[in-house]
């Protein structure tokens, strides 16, 4: 039984409880009005009903569309952040040993802070500057690297560019965490839901089972819709909440590679010690970039040697 409860999840149980409570309240009202003398049908109610329903649907659609857009922005920001972290980790392979180890340690620390510190805060609707401070330190450390070779300089430039993308992705994640529906929209959702849910009973609903069933079902759906709006108001919580899955995957990926690299019989050369995950992965792209740079250096060296021979001759 406990396993079944955990499978449903807290948000699902909230919706179920809301549906039962809404249906119970509507059934109680219908039972209370069962003996109410039915007045002749008022023509005005026939015009007001569709207008109220249209207003309710408009407010509900506005709220859900806004929340859906925010959730999409949060998911895109988290995905971009995971890609940028992975790219910086790959780029560190082209730096001098000391700088490479420093940058990788900073990347691991940043990922740990994002998963263990930032996410609980974002679920509460806030986000401090802990991970931003780490990015600032990472940027300062990367700019201070003394690149004595063009390969190291290219790796530094590549990592710096990805660090800018990482800062942008984190800013988007923070913006989504602090995004909420305006209070006026939430109040409008609640008020219009109450009106639409209680409207069938205002017109002296018939005591037939079919009429009561439809009115109860409408009240249940309206109550569930209100709860869904409040559940989706934070893009990092609720049934569609954005989780740290992509960043957690990168964290596990980094740990596996570090463990594999420690068992290598020879030190990795460039990025060859870390095989890419796919033929189009970021590692392959960066390796191709460094290979082109190495070929360009060899070509330039051959030209310089030829010029020296010509001058000596």
Which of globular, elongated, flat, extended, rod-shaped describes the shape?
elongated
* Oligomeric assembly: single chain
Largest sheet: none
In the predicted model, the low-confidence regions spanning at least 5 consecutive residues are 1-7, 256-286
Termini separation comes to 91 Å
**What class, by secondary structure content?**
mainly alpha
Which helices and strands appear, and what pairs or packs with what?
Elements: H1 2-8, H2 10-32, H3 43-91, H4 97-123, H5 130-143, H6 150-177, H7 183-202, H8 209-231, H9 245-262, H10 282-312
Task: Describe the protein's architecture and organization.
It is a single chain. The protein has one domain (9-34, 41-277). The chain starts with a helix and ends with a helix. The chain has 313 residues and is mainly alpha-helical. α3 runs parallel beside α9 (245-262) and α5 packs antiparallel against α6 (150-177). It is elongated, with a radius of gyration of 30 Å. Residues 1-7 and 256-286 have low confidence and may be disordered. The chain is 77% helix and 0% strand. The chain has helices spanning 2-8, 10-32, 43-91, 97-123, 130-143, 150-177, 183-202, 209-231, 245-262, 282-312.
Task: Characterize this entry briefly.
It contains ten helices and no strands.
Key traits:
10 helices, disordered N terminus, mainly alpha, 313 residues
